[in-house]
Amino acid sequence: MAGDRAHCVSVSDALAATAGSDRAFGPLELDHLATCLRCRAEQARYQRLMEAMQSLREAPAEEDYRLESQILETLDLHGRRLARMARSGVVAAVGGVAAGAAATAGFIAARHRRAARLAS
Amino acid sequence: MVSLVERAKSGDREAFDRLVRITHSDSYALALRLTGSTEDARDVVQEAYLRAYRSVGRFRGDALFSTWLYRIVANCAATHNGRRRLHRHDDLGAHDDVIDTRPDYDPTLLGDLAALRVNLDAAIRDLPPRLRSVVVLRDMYDMPHEAIAKELGISVTAAKVRLHRARRRLREQVLPLPGEEHDHGR
């Protein structure tokens, strides 16, 4: 009797893991399942549970009519933010290039002046 | 769908908008199952589409676009549920008993699939988020254990343990064996 109870626990665990399928069961578990009404009832319940889970997926979900426009607004907002960042990046880059060019021109002019002073 | 995905990958916003129109109901249904709340599901779906839009160029096409999107929704829902848990102290732990408060619970109706679905839907919502996510992704959306583990940021073993607990809890609550009815506070 105690052995049967231990088999029930082991089969019950296995049924939860396999969602009611006995394909991966060993001979001991299959033998027990063939003779234990409680375990067979539990197996049938897991199988019905899985059918119900699958049918729930196919059941129409509650509609949220505002959702589509909210998603598109979120994407628009993201696009605008990216565009703003790109614009400020271009401005910064143009500013950087201009400042660099001015510094280079100043450096070259200073070298020319120094060279002219040395020559005279 | 395939041509829309290809266009979206090359940066066509109009194509991505059409993908949103085609897929948002299913994404919302999954988010609703994972979060158990319409408000949270709405936030999760918006975040998911934003992530999808940013990364659609990297979508390799070795899975269906909808499957790829489901994984993003699952990941966003996991992040959202994690944030929720940090801010909510009365959340149910994985070992707490779920109390069935449904007034119309009637075991004689269990043979009826429609009634079973109603009870199961309520039982799934009652599950703690960490168990709910795994059982929904595995048993409703057929996602492999490895993908579930990756999107939820847990090990494959942890995903299997949670699935085992979730199935057992659902089975005991919705389709109890004789003698199990009193285990849920009734």
Describe the structure.
- The complex is a heterodimer of chains A (120) and B (186).
- Chain A has 120 residues and is mainly α.
- Chain A folds into two domains: 2-58, no CATH class; 86-120.
- In chain A, 84% of the residues lie in helices and 0% in strands.
- In chain A, helix 1 (2-18) crosses helix 2.
- Chain A starts with a helix and ends with a helix.
- Chain B contains eight helices and no strands.
- In chain B, helix 2 packs across helix 6 and helix 3 packs across helix 4 (65-87).
- Chain B folds into two domains: 1-91, Rna Polymerase Sigma Factor, Chain: A, CATH 1.10.1740; 95-186, Arc Repressor Mutant, subunit A, CATH 1.10.10.10.
- Chain B is mostly helical.
- The termini of chain B are far apart.
- Classes of the chains: A mainly alpha (120), B mainly alpha (186).
- Chains A and B meet through helix 1, helix 3 and helix 4 of A and helix 2, helix 3, helix 5, helix 6 and helix 8 of B.
Features:
heterodimer, A: 120 residues, mainly alpha, 2 domains, B: 186 residues, Rna Polymerase Sigma Factor, Chain: A, Arc Repressor Mutant, subunit A, 0% strand
List the domain count of chain B as a whole number.
2
Share in β-strands of chain B? under 5%
Tell me which CATH architecture of the largest domain in chain B applies here. Orthogonal Bundle
How would you name the oligomeric state of the polypeptide chains in this document? heterodimer
Q: What is the general shape of chain B?
A: elongated
